[in-house]
Amino acid sequence: MRMIKVKNVRKRHYRGQSNLLFFAVLLFLGRNLHAQSSFSVCGGFNQPIFYTQQSKSEYYHNIRPYDAYLVNFTYRENFSALQKNLQLGAQLEFKQASAWFYYEDLYPVDTFATGVRYDIRSLNLYLFPELNVGQEVKFIFSGGPVLQYVVNTKAKGTQIQIISGKSNIETPIDDKSSKDISGFSLGVKISIGVEIPIYKNLYFLFSNSYTAGLTGLQGNLRKQMKFFNSLDLNISAGLLLQINHKEWFGNEK
To answer: Which residue range is the domain that position 241 belongs to?
Structure first.
């Protein structure tokens, strides 16, 4: 039974990698079909909401998120051979998600109560189809898979050892390269935004997006939390430069 579960997890993992590869190939092939492409740089805020399969009745824990930030770089390619208002894109995003984790490890004699703030810095690769509606002002809708890699995790807090419910021993935690949260995870992202023209091919871009982790985050914290990840609420704004290749580089022969 365990082998079947492992095989199913591997199949889902490979399927997710295949979807990412499919979009990457389309972007590469699209260089020969393009009419327009665009680049954008945005920054904004991120609000993570962490969730876990661990029951509080079995293992007491509490997670309190903090506001964090993000910066992303996005490339989009218009496929005139498919549809004028359809684009395929790739986005590389640097994100910091912050949250306070509190959990209690219960033993026959001792209880370890741990409270730690984690600052999780990650790189996120987002591949997506995008639909835009409108002429001058455009409303944009996109969705697709996200591959997340945790670059670094900072942990700062305190662990209190309660001995027989009487004496306490406090141990400070200050780890600038914690292994509690690390590794890769796969998720899905949807985004709604608007492009407002500023000057010629330069646009102001505002976006509201939601990212949900589908596979659990890795690291030492899985011992306490089992499966855990987050639903991220992201708000960003920035500039988008649209490039018409016929105007910039001349007609292709």
So the answer is: 2-98+122-149+185-249
CA distance 71 to 126: 13
pLDDT the model gives residue 140: 94
Name the average pLDDT for the chain.
82
In CATH, what number is assigned to the domain containing residue 235? 2.40.160.20
State the total domains in the chain. Answer: 1
Work out the average pLDDT over 42-58: 83
For residue 188 the two structure tokens come to 């899905």
Residue 44 lies in a domain: yes
Note whether residue 91 is domain-resident. yes
DSSP 22-70: HHHHHHHHGGGTEEEEEEEEEEEEEEEEEEES--TTTS-EEEEEEEEEE
Question: CA 13, 14, 17, 21: dihedral to nearest 10 degrees?
Answer: -170
pLDDT in tens, 71-109: 999 999 886 555 678 889 999 999 999 999 988 876 666
Residue-wise pLDDT tens digits, 222-237 = 877 777 788 899 999 9
Is residue 140 domain-resident?
yes
Cα–Cα distance, 225 to 248 (Å, whole number)? 53
* Nearest-10 Cα torsion for 73, 213, 18, 121: 40
CA distance 20 to 213: 15
Q: Specify the pLDDT at position 79.
A: 65
> Cα–Cα distances in Å, from 224 out to 121, 138, 177?
21, 46, 19
